């Protein structure tokens, strides 16, 4: 699915989003908070203090999935 669809489902279910390629490495928590989207490892660690900074390729991917 595209990032818009995945984000909406994530917000509805209080989940994370990731891609097929990243699913064993990282997950992203979409928020409207000051920290923006929070990037986490699948082990629950927060490796980025600045939130997620997507590139154009990230935003146009069609392999986004919702995850716990």
Characterize the structure shown.
This protein is α+β, with helices and mostly antiparallel strands and 68 residues long. It contains 2 helices and 4 strands. The strands form 2 sheets. It has a two-stranded antiparallel sheet with strand order 1-4. Strands 2-3 form a two-stranded antiparallel sheet. The chain is globular. 24% of the residues lie in helices and 24% in strands.
Largest sheet: 2 strands, antiparallel
Count of DSSP H/I helices: 2
β-strand number:
4
End-to-end CA span: 17 Å
Q: What proportion strand? A: 15-25%
Q: Which H/E pattern describes the elements?
A: HEEEHE
**Mean pLDDT score:** 89
Strand order of the largest sheet: 1-4
Helical residue percent band: 10-25%
From the spread of the alpha carbons, the general shape counts as globular
Q: How big is the Rg?
A: 11 Å
- What class, by secondary structure content? alpha+beta
Low-pLDDT regions: none
């Amino acid at each position: 699915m595209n990032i818009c669809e995945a984000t909406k489902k994530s917000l509805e279910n209080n989940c994370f989003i990731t891609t097929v390629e990243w699913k064993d490495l990282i997950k992203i928590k979409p928020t409207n908070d000051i920290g923006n989207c929070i990037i986490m490892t699948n082990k629950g660690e927060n490796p980025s203090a600045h939130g997620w900074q997507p590139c154009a390729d990230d935003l146009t991917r069609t392999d986004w999935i919702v995850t716990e």
